[in-house]
Amino acid sequence: MQRAIAMALKLDHTKIMFSTQDEEDDFNGLDEHSRDVIPSVATEIDRTLRDCRFMMIFLNGSDDEVDVTRFGIPQMTEFRNNRMIWTFKRRLLTIHSHRSRIAEKLRYTHLFLSAALVHGEYQINESQFCALVHGEAATIIARHPCMLDIDTTMVRDCCLFDLSLHYNFHSTTRLSWAARSNNFWICDGIIQGDKEMEISKALHQEIRWECDASLLHRVLEKLKPTFLVHATLSDARLARTLWPAIDSYRSRGRLVDVYFNINITSVPVYSEEEDFQPAATHRVLAKHYGDIHGMVGDVPMQDFPEALTTGFDRHVGIAQGSRGLESELLGYIPTRNNLALLMRRCADSLHLHDVSTSVNMPMNEWNYLKHCRVERCTRLDTVFPGTYGFEALETVWASDLLMARSIWSKGDPYYHYSSFRELRHLNLRSCPRLRFMLPVWASSFPRLETLHMIDCGDLRHVFIMDKEHPEVHVAFPNLTTIHLHNLPMLRQICEAQMRMLAPALMTIKIRGCWDLRRLPAMEGRGIQHKKPTVEIEKDVWDALEWDGVEAGHHPSLFEEPRHSHFYKKKLLRGSVLG
């Protein structure tokens, strides 16, 4: 410290004093941390500053006050024109709640300032907190020559990662995970390059989060963590080990603090940007969210929407080679802390693909699930055995389910009238044995916007009436788009006993639906709205049945249909003799 002051004041003649004292201390076996100030150097510093007007900024390295007069700094009183601004620790940002205890120890400080950033008008927000950490990262880089060409964002991420370990795991496991953060920085790819070990070692000495747990929670409770738990498990039973840490947040009503990406598969998973060979030639790589199947048939796929692959906070993916899967999905036993419980109670995204199991997904209480994607599960008969609890579901994307007869089964003894109230998109393709999509027992789907159904040869209806809760009509007030391609058995979207109302329709595209007899009624549509456009084969349009203008169900309420050139395949003119 004294040497740094002398260098800042450009007292070059003191270098000899330091060299002489260093030689003496080395001879006496004193390490650097045990060496005291040099009185002769203190005299030179005092002589230089005594009659000067100056301000000193001192970043302290502890919670204790330091008497800088021992280094030669003239005593600072309220009558002098000299000032010193200093902070506890080595950083400008500290997180402590015991401000009064710190203030009681001060002897030389005339004014103690602190800020309450966790409540009231000065409550810190996410961008401000990240800016503070970003500034700290820049300070760390400036102190280390090995980091001068390093991106500040990388160091900031290391700081936040260390904070995440300190905040999320210590209170749960009582283990000092943060002490091993330098290993995680490299393993998780935050630090990369030729100097990764040198940088990791330097950062490990710099980054120390020492803060009160209760205060830290209040600072971070509204901030989305930068990192999430990513686990790839070959055996579904291993998901039980993740439940205690996740449940510790969920049980305290803090599921918003939980972020995870869990993949159950024994096959390597990689992203679009990665490309590597499997360990064994007989194993096929599981391309993350990749769709390797094309559509069967002549209908073009331009209009079929792509499935969402990003933006999930709590995602579970189940793929081929998943061991122990059936035992983890069977039954409705809340006391079993297994994969089924984790998905039902926490997951907001589910991607089930390329599995050979015939066991359905666990029933009931999928209260957080927003996005559901199921594809290439050749033995599934029904995906979900019940309709209870899908209160947040927004998107359903089902494809290539060769044996499935329904996505949701009917006759569920448990009902909840808020289920499917958030449903916006239904996408279905290549499910040749599917008879229906969803049993209707609610009087309205207030947010449903799009229906895309392609290549489902046995599909009779998209929505069927549940006998336990019959409905006279089903309203779709926000349904704007209907695309139906190659559904030769489809009679109408809703079962015959129900009247489908869709006053907001804008686009209808229909091809290869030769048995279709009814389109939705538009009762309640304002006269100011433009008529919906229709693309449909002339044979199908001419065969449609109508209820009349007064019922909002008449050809005049649609634009003149555009008849495509897609017609039934030509049949042989005569019989074929064997």
Automatic annotation (TrEMBL):
The family database entries (InterPro entries) matched by this protein are listed as: At4g27190-like_LRR (IPR057135), LRR_dom_sf (IPR032675), Plant_NBS-LRR (IPR050905)
Q: Which residues form the Disease resistance protein At4g27190-like leucine-rich repeats domain?
A: 405-519
Coiled-coil annotation: which residues?
Answer: none
Protein name in the entry: Disease resistance protein At4g27190-like leucine-rich repeats domain-containing protein
Organism annotation: Urochloa decumbens
